[in-house]
Write a structure and sequence with these properties.
The complex is a heterodimer of chains A (about 120) and B (about 110). Chain A is mainly β and about 120 residues long. Helices cover about 0% and strands about 50% of the residues of chain A. In chain A, the strands form 2 sheets. In chain A, strands 2, 4, 5, 6, 9, 10 and 11 form a 7-stranded mixed β-sheet that branches. In chain A, strands 1-3-8-7 form a 4-stranded antiparallel β-sheet, with no helix packed on it. Chain B is built from no helices and 12 strands. Classes of the chains: A mainly beta (about 120), B mainly beta (about 110).
């Protein structure tokens, strides 16, 4: 059973460009979480999605950031008009029915560098 | 809001030394508590968890006990190995609904042979 997959692993963007980060959850998992890790800091929650629904986006910056988890295909975290402060590692986690287990399974992350 | 505070790193120990990484939390209600480990270049892996007061989580020789009276969940291991070198994160979440994890800042552990 493949784990959570994220691509690309490394992404370099110039200021003002768009960044698209993809996350494929583990097979059978319908819940996806996105977290951001700034250099030398812990992970901060951004958004929680189920298929076609955003459940909790309390950690998402109000502008330039959006997320989706369509019926078919991976979850996408989109950052428009990137700035240097967006440079970070972005981790996706997935879980099965959240009423049955606490565990979130993490992907390897996408390291975004904005130049 | 909820928060988690870990002892500052980095921590450097010799092989077979005793390890303690302190973790305290602030939260409403009765959160579940976790320790995650991150090896270089990888994502986080769940190391152990505890879901109620006085529960002890354990895995791979690591242990942590949920202490509600001191709001703590300190990680311990009796004899560390070089392969334990990693970054360790303490975290909490609330059962039900959106189980977002609230993380501490992480503690980098280096074990020297």
């Amino acid at each position: 059973n493949a784990g959570v997959m994220q691509n690309p692993r490394h992404l370099v963007r110039r200021r003002g460009q768009e960044a698209r980060l993809r996350c494929s959850p583990m097979k059978g998992h319908s819940h996806v979480y996105w977290y951001r890790q700034l250099p030398e800091e812990g992970l901060k929650f951004m958004v929680y999605l189920q298929k076609e629904n955003i459940i909790d986006e309390s950690g998402m910056p109000k502008e330039r950031f959006s997320a989706e988890f369509p019926k078919e295909g991976p979850s996408i975290l989109r950052i428009q008009q990137v700035v240097r402060g967006d440079s970070a590692a972005y981790f996706c986690a997935s879980s099965p029915d959240t009423t049955l287990t606490y565990e979130q399974y993490f992907g390897p992350g996408t390291r975004l560098t904005v130049t | 809001g909820d928060s988690v505070t870990q002892m500052e790193g980095p921590v450097t120990l010799s092989e077979e030394a005793f390890l303690t990484i302190n973790c305290t939390y602030t939260a409403t209600g009765y959160p579940s508590l976790f320790w995650y480990v991150q090896y270089p270049g990888e994502g986080l892996q769940l190391l152990l968890k505890a879901t109620k007061a006085d529960d002890k989580g354990s895995n791979k020789g690591f242990e942590a006990t949920y202490r509600k009276e001191t709001t703590s969940f300190h990680l311990e291991k009796g004899s560390v190995q070089v392969s334990d070198s990693a970054v360790y994160f303490c975290a909490l979440s609330h059962w039900g609904g959106a189980q977002k994890l609230v993380f501490g800042q992480g503690t980098r552990l280096t074990i020297n042979p």
